[in-house]
Amino acid sequence: MKTKINIKALYIVLCGFVLSFSSCKDYLTEIEPGTTLLEDFYTSTDAAVQNVTGCYAPLMWEFNNTYFSEWFIGDIASDDAIKGGGSTTDMADAYDIENWRTTDQNSLLLQWYRANYQGIGRCNLALEYIGKTEPGIDADFTPEMKNRLLGEVYYLRAYYYFRLVRVFAGVPMPLKVLSSSDDWGMPRASVNEVYTQILSDLEQANSYLWLKSAYAGADMGRATKGAAQAMLMKVNLYMASPYWQKHGVLSGGNWSPLSKSAADCYKDAKAWGDSIMASGEYSLCPNYEDNFTVDGENGQESVFEIQYAEVPWGDYGEGFGYTAGSFTQILVRSRNEKIGGGWGFNHPTQNLYDEFEAADSIRRDVAILIPSAEIDSTYQPQSDEDYLGNNMLNNKYGMYRDPKAVGGGYGKWSLHASRGPLNNKQIRYADVLLMYAEACLGLGDAGTAKTYIDEVRARVGLAPCAAANDATLRHERRCELAMEGHRWFDLVRWEGVDGNGLKAHMDAYKLTETADAQHHMQEFVAGKHELFPIPQEERQLNPTFMEQNPGY
């Protein structure tokens, strides 16, 4: 396994710091003896690195008082997966997301919202204090090192805001440390303002960050120049999409467009793609499945991964940041002890299974496990796995084979009963190639788009596509990135221009589900369900928050 960020450093807590308040009396502003000022922490390169490492930690978080992995939105809200679990009441918040029943009381969305703002707060702290720390505090804190660390933080702040904007649209946008209660209340920034800030942060990150090959082995998993360029591609493609072009500013329940045109977004996405491909830093893994093994982490196809580690410590129910492992593996593994002993969430749909071409068995079987084909005749897939008539399992993140198990099978897989070591692959080079193809299609260059779509297909032995068009590209993204949490966000940006396209798509998908599953699904409401509601608890904490998303 590739060496990666020292996970234990993610739990550094900067404590004992106090705020100083202004007063007309000198004695009120004098520092109490024994107090440690925040500035006193930044006296070495190691301290600055620890601070930046702590900015990555909220990316890892999947539990506070409920589980809130991003795939509960990205997969389960889409046509790629249904909730799964022990019953319809198991993870009721996810059941609501699956079936268009979500309200502003949904605790999964609340914890998702809060985890990302914890990340933003850490980033703002690091940008302020590392930014004013002069090179030379020790031999390692060179201008290049300072810039690299700042680049990582700009990247991460952009990443947290991107996660928020595509779920909730415009959100409050603090860009500095909130040092008093007077700073706390702020209205929602518009989608246009959030995307503009994300682009600014990513461009700053790109100017500071190093190439992946310049990092030491112990630093694998940190943000790189390639990661910034890939995110600049992704954000521009989101902004170019029909849905987000229309939804730049919300006022009085009505939307106004983004300020950046779709044509300019496609142009910039292609330019950033040219840069990352020209770097020579990335290539497709010859074996597709290697992307989803522990030994394949941070490899040649990895552009950015959320890092996890195998550890024996931690316990259930401890909240934010109490583990260096991932809950995803136990959440999605089979409920049967013979092939995992997990909790059985995130079942791939028959609709997804049918999307794969007959010759595309490599990607299909890496993404989807039908358990009866993998185990002995005594296993009862209906009683052990059935959720509303579906017994298929997420193979990529839950059912990966353990090379240490007898026969290399699906045995015990971690030192801890509920923590897995497998990284979450956020951006792979295959995604970059497909984004590049999408940008080319947006600019009318179907020939170049076909070249890169075919490169992705050739890796798994598929023949070239007949032609490059929107339908071909969307099919290819769905199959290549299946069960990796991208699908819902792709559907919104492609189909959600006025809600009617996405409604038609989701209504058609509903008809492919089992009768049991259809019984639980409420009607998809155009103009509402493309977004999720701002959590009510957060609106109450911020009385100037103003508008809720339309329909909630």
Strand and helix layout:
Blueprint: H1 26-29, H2 45-60, H3 71-74, E1 81-84, H4 92-98, H5 107-131, H6 143-168, H7 191-208, H8 225-240, H9 242-246, E2 249-251, E3 254-256, H10 262-278, E4 302-306, H11 328-332, E5 345-348, H12 350-355, H13 361-367, E6 368-369, H14 381-385, E7 393-394, E8 424-428, H15 429-442, H16 446-459, H17 470-480, H18 487-495, H19 500-510, H20 515-520, H21 536-541
Antiparallel strand pairs: 1-5, 2-3, 4-8, 6-7
Helix pairs in contact: 2-5, 2-6, 5-6, 6-7, 7-8, 8-10, 8-15, 10-15, 15-16, 15-17, 18-19
Report a brief summary of the structure.
With 552 residues, this protein is mainly alpha-helical.
Describe the model:
The two termini are 46 Å apart. This protein is globular. The protein is mainly alpha-helical. The model is unreliable at 7-29 (pLDDT under 50). The chain contains 21 helices and 8 strands. The protein has a domain at 328-424.
Distance between the termini: 46 Å
* Number of strand segments: 8
Number of helices: 21
Query: What spatial form do the alpha-carbon principal axes imply?
Result: globular
The share of residues in helices is 40-55%
Summing up helix and strand content along with how strands pair, one would put the structural category as mainly alpha
Work out the radius of gyration.
23 Å
What string gives the helices and strands in order?
Answer: HHHEHHHHHHEEHEHEHHEHEEHHHHHHH
Low-confidence stretches: 7-29
Strand content: 5-15%
The averaged pLDDT comes out at: 89
Largest sheet: 2 strands, antiparallel
Largest sheet: spatial strand order = 1-5
